[in-house]
Amino acid sequence: MKLQEIINITLINLLENKFKVILTSLGIIVGTATIIMVIAIGKGGEEDVKKQFEGLSAGSIYINLNYENPGLDIKDIIPLDEEKMQTIREDSNNISKVALSVVGTTEIKVGAKEGFESVVGVTDEFSDINKLNIQFGEGINNEHQEGKDKVCVLGDSLAQQYFSDSESAIGGSIKINGKTYKVIGVLERKGDGAQGVSPDQSIFIPYSTAYKHVYDEKTYIPQGVALVEDLNKVENGIRDVQSSLEYIFDEGANNFKVEDAGSKIEAALASSKTMNVLLMSVATIVFIVGGIGIMNVLFVSVKERTKEIGILKALGSSGKDILIQFLLESVLIGSFGGICGIILSYLLMPLTKYLGVPVLFTIDGQIIALLFAIITGTVFGIYPAYKASQLKPVEALSYE
């Protein structure tokens, strides 16, 4: 039998059993869509992690409270201050800059607009270390710190939310806890930041002002950050910071956790990859179930078409021809399921956006999913096709 004839017979059988083909390929459709979504979510998650940390200096070292320490008692904490941070800088040949920040959420008001927003008290070098660039106006400087001035710098998103646009916010005023602050600057749009701060949605004020007018020193504990400009010496910088903390706080050094930006990125990416593996495992199970469905339907099809196979063999078709016909049928069902799965994944895109899940659809992901679908159809179709090819013409023709 010619290949063209085998293809024609296969297509006729599939077209005559459209409903059965659709039901058979459901597992493959779901599996294909799942793999595409898994890859898209994985890629989206990795891109989201990169965006969250892209503005951070790879040489940043963060000093936060160590909540993993069972002996931590916030009431008894001796906090970091500017003098201690200067000691950390002076004790190390690897650290070039240090800064402090205190973060909290408080009530603000701009004209008739009110809300609760993140207000961050920062020392001078915080912006340089975290790459917070000024878009309009000016940043917080040493004079503002010394005078405990009521001035602020707004994140771009927040400036647009409370003013007509970012530039018009300059010179405007904003009330924080009932006190009026002058807006002196607006940051460039940045994305997520570190230490619980989202720059685009935050208000930055002088560190000294924060503790004088906004936050209670006993309730709000400051966070420290140091910068190592030579990336090859980040580990040395971490050791220097830990050594300084032990010198400054003695046994209380265990109350602080020291980590660098690179560790944060690696931890976030590792978490994202773990989730990808889990979702891919689910997709694989779905594919196996779909493949078993194809195998089952093909076995039923072989039973139903036993006489047809007998007639084909009696007319001169070889076992190889029958094998190719049923295997081709399985491959086409897998391919059909793969294509429908790709279409389904595009239909699910609006849902992922609505749920706020970061996704990044790629051609590579779609090709991989389609190949999985075709391979599944092929692998699970081999045995039923082989069984069909082994039927003897006499037995097949006499089958009831």
Describe the structure.
With 400 residues, the chain is of the alpha+beta class. It folds into two domains: 3-51 and 267-397, no CATH class; 60-261, no CATH class. It has 13 helices and ten strands.
Measured by DSSP, the beta-strand proportion falls in 15-25%
Domain module count: 2
The first-to-last residue Cα distance is 26 Å
If you average the pLDDT, what whole number results? 81
Helix/strand structural class? alpha+beta
In terms of per-residue confidence, which ranges show pLDDT below 50 for 5 or more consecutive residues?
none
The helix fraction, in percent, is: 55-70%
Helical segment tally?
13
Largest sheet: 6 strands, mixed, barrel
Order of helices and strands: HHEHEEHEHEHEEEHEHEHHHHH
Q: Return Rg in Å.
A: 33 Å
Kindly state the number of beta strands. Answer: 10
Give the overall shape, derived from the CA principal axes.
elongated
**Widest sheet: strand order?**
2-3-8-5-7-6
